């Protein structure tokens, strides 16, 4: 049994690669435990993601941790994701600690933060372990990124510091899953290997009897069990962590296309952020959502969306270089609907004064709204609410750019932003998750686009999210060895696990 006098048990879900299924498995474990009456919380020490959310405590954290908190049936907080990195270019990221930005860092300067951030992450984990019965931790990327091991905060560095048992999940749909599992273990130092309790295989489709010999062989080669095989199921996970989960021409879910469908084209910006804003559209029957990178796809859609961006000025330049800006402008001039959200809203302005994010100074926007944007040093974080089309709207805001209407602007209000012709703009994220508002907005879009489209009257996005979280809990309950998982939580890392050569940089045992 779990001793209530001790720090709550915890385990770490690591993965062979990014997008192997760590977030999904973590959420599934959280849901399964919560349904057993366990007070459980998620944790990710360090997250690199452009999808974030504002928690009730005012902290900016990774969107995936907020949804894992929902799987636990609790509110999210800064302790669940104490370090968030938001890439602004290929070489630098904004560093957010306990929900507040502390500056920009590249790969080299970030090393100077490491000791401080390690303390922050371990303190946050200890805080959760004092408040909850179990903590399910999610790793980042792969634990076998041996060039980064010395400064690792989220994978084996965390596991060793907190003595956590580790599950390694591999995506069999990518191919080479057995090599990935074995190779991940073999590259770890012996003391790290000693914490790896076993494996989970994700996204399996096919005949299980064909897979079984491989499971037997990986057990024999590593001395570690496979805790289970999760089957492939479409459309399970909303709130994905990064754009690896998006295909070049599609969103997280594709609705069936028909004569009465409403076609939505979302520009897939290089530094696209909070594209989870689109999730609510993907669950609407008859709404066909595509993430696009070509002008003709923008021209052909009933609604074009320019989403958020971590690098507004740079992504605006990319829009122009690819001919996408001209396609968006052409849409607006012929009265075809365009929606800009946060960074995308800023791009629609006449001018952008950015001496903070890009340092570019004043640059021309697309000129589709009679507004100007000025970037502030202090980031705006909030959970605003208001009225849209006569319906209550609850959202969240994360931005440096403040939008100001021209003195002579003749626009209509749209949430906190503007509607000018058929061009809509708002800084609010998550607004489309409000069902009545979403239906009214899509009805307005369809009318302006001249489409015969009516939303389903009973689509409930919150209920759909709950259904998917329950499905993740079902996967864990039905396909993993939950008795063995309980033992892992109660007893910690197994003793006497064999070391797999070559044993990483630390050499053989």
Q: Which term fits the overall shape?
A: globular
| CATH superfamily annotation of the largest domain | Class I glutamine amidotransferase (GATase) domain
Report strand order across the widest sheet: 15-13-16-18-27-26-25
Topology, number of strands:
27
Pathway: Cofactor biosynthesis; adenosylcobalamin biosynthesis
Pfam families: CbiA, GATase_3
Function: Catalyzes amidations at positions B, D, E, and G on adenosylcobyrinic A,C-diamide. NH(2) groups are provided by glutamine, and one molecule of ATP is hydrogenolyzed for each amidation.
Keywords: Cobalamin biosynthesis, Glutamine amidotransferase
Summarize the structure.
The chain is built from 15 helices and 27 strands. It has 509 residues and is α/β, with parallel strands linked by helices.
Describe this structure in words.
There is one protein chain. This protein is α/β, with parallel strands linked by helices. The chain has two domains: 10-80 and 117-225 and 481-500, Rossmann fold (3-Layer(aba) Sandwich), CATH 3.40.50.300; 247-461, Class I glutamine amidotransferase (GATase) domain (Rossmann fold). The chain is 31% helix and 27% strand. It has 15 helices and 27 strands. The protein has a seven-stranded mixed beta sheet. The protein starts with 9 loop residues before the first strand and ends in an 18-residue tail after the last helix.
């Amino acid at each position: 049994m779990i001793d209530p006098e001790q720090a709550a048990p915890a385990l770490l879900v690591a993965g062979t690669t990014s997008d192997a299924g760590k977030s999904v498995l973590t959420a599934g474990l959280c849901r399964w435990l919560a349904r057993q009456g366990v007070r459980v919380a998620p944790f990710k020490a360090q997250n690199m993601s452009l999808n974030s959310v504002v928690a009730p405590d005012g902290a900016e954290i990774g969107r995936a941790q907020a949804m894992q908190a929902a799987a636990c049936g609790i509110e999210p907080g800064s302790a669940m994701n104490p370090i968030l990195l938001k890439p602004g270019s290929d070489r630098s990221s904004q560093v957010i600690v306990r929900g507040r930005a502390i500056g920009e860092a590249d790969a080299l300067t970030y090393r100077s933060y490491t000791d401080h951030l390690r303390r922050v992450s371990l303190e946050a984990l200890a805080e959760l372990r004092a408040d909850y019965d179990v903590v399910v931790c999610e790793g980042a990327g792969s634990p076998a990124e041996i060039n980064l091991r010395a400064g690792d905060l989220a994978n084996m560095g965390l596991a060793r510091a907190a003595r956590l048992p580790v599950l390694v999940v591999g995506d069999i749909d990518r191919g080479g899953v057995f090599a990935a599992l074995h190779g991940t273990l073999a590259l770890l130092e012996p003391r790290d290997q000693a914490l790896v309790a076993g494996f989970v295989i994700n996204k399996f489709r096919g005949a299980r009897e064909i897979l079984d010999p491989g499971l037997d062989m990986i057990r024999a080669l590593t001395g570690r069990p496979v805790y289970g095989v999760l089957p492939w199921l479409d459309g399970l996970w909303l709130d994905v962590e990064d754009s690896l989960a998006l295909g070049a021409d599609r969103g997280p879910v594709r609705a069936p296309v028909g004569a009465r469908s409403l076609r939505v084209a979302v520009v897939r910006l290089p530094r696209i952020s909070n594209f989870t804003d689109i999730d609510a559209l993907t669950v609407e029957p008859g709404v066909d959502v595509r993430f696009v990178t070509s002008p003709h796809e923008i021209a052909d859609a009933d609604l074009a969306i320019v989403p958020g961006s971590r690098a507004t000025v740079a992504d605006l330049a990319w829009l122009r270089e690819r001919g996408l800006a001209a396609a968006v402008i052409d849409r607006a001039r012929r009265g075809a609907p365009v929606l800009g959200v946060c960074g995308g809203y800023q791009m629609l302005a006449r001018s952008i004064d950015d001496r903070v994010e890009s340092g570019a100074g004043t640059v021309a926007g697309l000129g589709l709204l009679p507004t100007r944007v000025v970037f502030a040093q202090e980031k705006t974080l909030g959970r605003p609410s208001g009225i849209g089309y006569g319906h209550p709207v609850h959202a969240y805001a994360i931005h440096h750019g403040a939008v100001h209407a021209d003195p002579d602007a003749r626009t209509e209000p749209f949430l906190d932003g503007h509607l000018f012709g058929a061009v809509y703009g708002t800084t609010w994220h998550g607004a489309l998750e409000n069902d009545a508002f979403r239906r009214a907005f899509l009805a307005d879009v369809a009318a302006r686009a001249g489409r015969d489209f009516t939303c389903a009257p009973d689509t409930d996005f919150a209920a759909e999210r709950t259904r998917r979280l329950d499905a993740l809990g079902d996967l864990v309950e039905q396909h993993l060895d939950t008795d063995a998982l309980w033992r892992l939580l109660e007893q910690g890392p197994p003793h006497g696990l064999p070391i797999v050569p070559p044993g990483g940089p630390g050499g053989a045992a």
